[in-house]
Amino acid sequence: MTVKTYEKPKRVTRNDVAKLAGVSPAVVSYVINSSKYVSEEKTAAVKKAIKELQYRPNMQARGLKTNRSMQIAFVCDNLRNDWLEGAETLLFEKGYYVSHCYSKDDENFIQMLISRQFDGVFMMSNRFSTAQLNEIAGAGIPIVLYKTRNYGKLDPHIVTVAPDYRDGVVKSVNYLAVRGHKKIALIPPIRYRTKGLEDDGFRVKAYVETMKQNGLELHEEWVCTETESVEEILSSVFNMLTNGRKELRPTAFVTGNDYTAVQIMQYVKKMGLRIPEDVAIVGVDNVYLATVVTPALTSVDFSKEEFCQKLADTMLKLVDGEIPEGEYIKVSVVVRDSA
Known about the structure:
Number of strands: 11
Low-confidence stretches: none
Structural class: alpha/beta
Shape: elongated
Radius of gyration: 25 Å
Number of helices: 13
Order of helices and strands: HHHHEHEHEHEEHEHHEHEHEHEE
Strand content: 5-15%
Distance between the termini: 72 Å
């Protein structure tokens, strides 16, 4: 029996490009990296040779020289945030490849991030402790943090870029109160850990303070603490709406994102309740789901373009050794039929 073998094509090298273009390998590097002046004639010759040979720079070899992997990790609790494509595109234009990872708050995951030698991490998760974040930054990997709760003392190479979710909760509760709702529940995003009314996260603290400012009662049952899965969240919603004490059944939900809000909307309708007549719902992020669901979802909005630009700019500055100021993006409420 004859075993067929596959001969791997020879990799085109910088020297091959230089030979075809009639220049030195160093000139090829200058053109690719735009690191030194090269005459228009030689630049055109190098680019023509690169195209003809279909040359692709060896990023691993380049990384050994520059001490950079040219890779950024986006760590998220869920990967449904399609608007992050803007930030990924901006980083890609600067030569960085983005890897998306589901968050896993254990030591093995932390060590994986460190051992992969990412140049930076965008942490869109509240699952990690202050010590874990500092461990990553202490290994020389700066972090752009999508900060949604309070932490202890963070490494200076951990910089915040996030929507002002605190103000989003304030605006949502105030709006629902103006609409006459007195029994308002808080549903955090999936995998967002809370400890009830005593939680120190931005969302819960803003919810508690704003409910009090509006003279509204607070009940532990109105803060969802079981968020590990959609099923757990929907089970909590069911328990709230079927509470044996009618006075404890919420008439409105402030949710953590549009995905969670839409899941609750569909579930509530299956329970035979009407939106917004029986239950009002407010989402967060104002993604495309908010406009295609029925009824259309009221949602907290922020400029995705501004966020992505600030995320990319902050990441690039951190990678270059700078420590920029953290920023919170302004938010507003887009009123639709669900509330």
